[in-house]
Amino acid sequence: TFEQSKTLKRLPEQFFAKLVQKVQRLKDEGHDVINLGQGNPDLPTPPSIVKALQKAAEDPVNHKYSPFSGHTYFKEAVAKFYQREYGVEVDPKREVSILFGAKTGLVEISQCLLNPGDLALLPDPGYPDYLSGMALADAKQILMPLLKENHFLPDYHAISEEDAEKAKLLFLNYPNNPTSATATKEFFDETVAFAKKHHLCVVHDFAYGALGFDGEKPRSFLQSEGAKEIGVEMYTMSKTYNMAGWRVAFAVGNPSVIESIDLIQDHLYVSLFGAIQYAAAQALLGDQTAVRELVQTYERRRNRFIKAVKEIGWKVDMPKGTFFAWLPVPSGYTSQEFADLLLEKAHVAVAPGNGFGCTGEGYVRVGLLDSEERLEVAAKRIGELGLF
Ligand code: PLP
């Protein structure tokens, strides 16, 4: 056996691995587990996108290495998408980078811009992979608590002047995983001003960009004036188009950051399979009916699940975006204990909030990633435990 490097040993424990194991054990024992623990979309990619992939896969042009930093037509499609959806002008040559899923971009950005010992501001609770990036770059995080009383937005006034001056990166994610909160224009404008004042680079994770409810379209960070001067936004095809398995996403924004991301990607991967780039471009440019239907599907699931949960006496707030519900744990239990109880006794898997950071303690995250009927059954099974 060969010893792992110090870099690998710094990596945080993969939080979902344990949950997957526990779910598998119960399934192997023959139990009907309703798995709402992970963030894996359950619906298929729209057929027109799959057909575009099939067509492009037959074209020998795509059997060669794709150009470094991606195909021009895909970057142009990204620019058109930002113009159409958000009214944001994007230069496809200098302001777009093609990613192997948003996860790679979110992890690599720390290696692009941080030196060992440098500081970054991270949301807590937050998507765990920001921490993986910190560990690989040997950088240090300052956690920004996301509290219900502040609508799960960080409070920049609570960050000390010293920390703000020392930090180089600021990670944000709205609509937010795990809290399902959305951001306002005022908050994003305040973020631009804060970043400019302290010379911070903002990384906005817009993974759930399409998933806003009650007719509220989530804002792009780049819609705020001056945002491109100080930041980048990562947008994934995984959630909007149910393409999580395809590993395709893009970063948009500040040209110097885009150049750095392209550089690291060239060294690591060359470029994404051309046929995937082609199909992704078609998805961005084509008819968006499937996206609207997807949002309606999640909204119906949310409504039915939250109604059923309220009926069992659980006091919860309505998710505003994403496909998650962030629900308070009843008193007397930690998040982990409560999640274990739901899994063992009700055979419903949920993610304990502490897995997203210590401010997540006291909550569980439920993925709206099964049919309305199954979500209702999950709520009923939880109700039968008589905890509320
Ligand atoms: N960012 C957030 C907040 C997510 O929840 C996820 C996926 O679960 C990602 C990024 C990763 O997206 P991708 O599939 O593009 O790697």
TrEMBL record:
CDD domains: AAT_like (cd00609)
Enzyme class: transferase
Residue ranges of every copy of the Aminotransferase class I/classII large domain listed in the record: 32-382
Cofactor(s) recorded in Swiss-Prot or TrEMBL: pyridoxal 5'-phosphate
Keyword Transferase: yes
Pfam families assigned: Aminotran_1_2
Signal peptide: none
Keywords: Aminotransferase, Transferase
Gene Ontology molecular function: transaminase activity
E.C. code: 2.6.1.-
InterPro entries to which the protein is assigned, alphabetical: Aminotransferase_I/II_large, LL-DAP_aminotransferase, PyrdxlP-dep_Trfase, PyrdxlP-dep_Trfase_major, PyrdxlP-dep_Trfase_small
Protein's UniProt name: Aminotransferase
